[in-house]
Amino acid sequence: MATKPHHDADDSAITEERGVYTFRPRAFNIVWGNDNRYWRIPSRPTSARNNNDEVAELVQVSWLEVTGVAKLESSITYQVTFTLSFKENASGWSGCPVFLMAKVGKKGKYKWKRLKELESLPKVPTEVPSNSEPFLVEVPKDVPDKRLYFGLYEVWSGQWKKGLRVHGATVKEKK
What we know:
Order of helices and strands: EEEEEEEEEEEEE
Helix content: under 10%
Radius of gyration: 16 Å
Largest sheet: 8 strands, antiparallel
Strand content: 35-45%
Number of strands: 13
Distance between the termini: 45 Å
Oligomer: single chain
Structural class: mainly beta
Shape: globular
């Protein structure tokens, strides 16, 4: 087991281009992420490995908490999505209340959406939530702290889950 059980975000794994913030798996804070009994998280990519091949793989947890922070530039509406898939051996997700939550600023109020897609997520990378039911967060103009705190959470059931693959996330301006 690692000395520090939780994985701290690596800011170098976040890119921003034209209002789209892209988070690779190393860009997240992941509870129990440094303990390989629970998660497999990629180390820094080498020149031989493509950043798009990175995946954080859930071995097993009863407390799912995968979070990120985007330092936003302007006061507009953003769409938040995670790219996820299941491994063949995924289990423990049926009826499990997994939520996408976000707030603007450290003292902001959380907005949330239950991700029912995780009850039947395919084995191929899929954006969650779908564009037909987007998760939108508005950044008010009068807020001094424009950081967006967001994440995937399932900390209520105590149910063991396994087989989730986190490919990344995007926070993009909704036009």
